[in-house]
Design the sequence.
């Protein structure tokens, strides 16, 4: 009998890509979201607000999943960094994991963030490993780091329950908020408008949501535990990313780098060390950054 997996936040930026990947691997796939859209045959949808813990407990008891992939969180653009909803989701996520463990789930996968890591002075050229010091600078990062600690404690206290923590770096993909870097440039160029940018000097690690979802699926269905960076491991400056988008669009003339002010206190280098993802999970992103940008351009 195939194992049963529950994916929360399955209409979200990353969660929307995971159910089909699980189904293709032969898992019995259940999804949940507040407003569930029509789903492909073979995937069972549940409309549930996980912030109401009695609903979450009932859902877990009804499904009795073997594995939970928890992608739901509050992610309103520009607000999620400091939003009070982070505390709500921390408590709801802790409860969901506890309900899963009590109902016999053997594994819980949560989504973390590179914002959990400390920004250290003097390490502007070294990829960030999972062992890097945890020192979040935002309520969002703190809530995620706290959830990771709670899940680790929960797994340590239960012999047949493990946790996996997918620390995400910089995402782009379909359905992204139009104010974010990649879509804001694409939209401006498509409409024949200038695309203003800051200096773009900071170095980042970009991965598409499709590849991130594939990495999370591979991680979730493996036996690897603890934190794993979900990223490409390939450093690129924000300016180079902007130029790549403009070059592919054939409108480099409209890209105006340096016309916006830089953000204060922006980390100069945020790039993942992806050794665990490659060696232990066995996942390597199969598509080039340029190819992924081209795929987005034609949507």
Sequence:
């Amino acid at each position: 009998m195939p194992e049963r997996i529950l994916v929360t936040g399955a209409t979200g930026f990353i969660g929307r890509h995971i159910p089909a990947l699980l189904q293709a691997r032969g898992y019995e796939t259940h999804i949940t979201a507040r407003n569930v859209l029509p789903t492909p045959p073979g995937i069972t949808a549940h409309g549930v607000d996980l912030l109401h813990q009695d609903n979450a407990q009932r859902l877990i008891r009804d499904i009795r999943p073997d594995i939970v992939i928890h992608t739901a969180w509050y992610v309103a653009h520009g607000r999620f960094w400091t939003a009070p909803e982070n505390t709500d989701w921390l408590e709801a996520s802790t409860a969901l994991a506890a309900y899963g463990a009590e109902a016999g789930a053997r594994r819980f996968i949560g989504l973390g963030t590179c914002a959990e890591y400390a920004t250290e002075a003097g390490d502007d050229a070294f990829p960030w490993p999972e062992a890097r010091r945890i020192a979040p600078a935002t309520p969002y990062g703190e809530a995620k780091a706290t959830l990771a600690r709670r899940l680790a404690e929960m797994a340590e206290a239960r012999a047949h329950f493990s946790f996996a923590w997918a620390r995400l770096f910089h995402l782009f993909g379909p359905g992204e908020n139009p104010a974010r870097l990649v879509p804001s440039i694409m939209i401006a160029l498509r409409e024949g408008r200038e695309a203003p940018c800051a200096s773009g000097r900071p170095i980042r690690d970009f991965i598409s949501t499709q590849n991130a979802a594939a990495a999370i699926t591979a991680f979730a269905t493996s036996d690897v535990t603890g934190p794993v960076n979900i990223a490409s491991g390939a450093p690129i400056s924000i300016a180079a990313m902007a130029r790549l988008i403009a070059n592919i669009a054939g409108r480099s003339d409209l890209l105006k780098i340096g016309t916006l002010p830089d953000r204060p206190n922006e980390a100069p280098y945020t790039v993942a060390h992806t050794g665990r993802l490659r060696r232990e999970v066995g996942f390597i992103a199969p598509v080039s950054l340029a190819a992924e940008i081209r795929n987005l351009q034609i949507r």
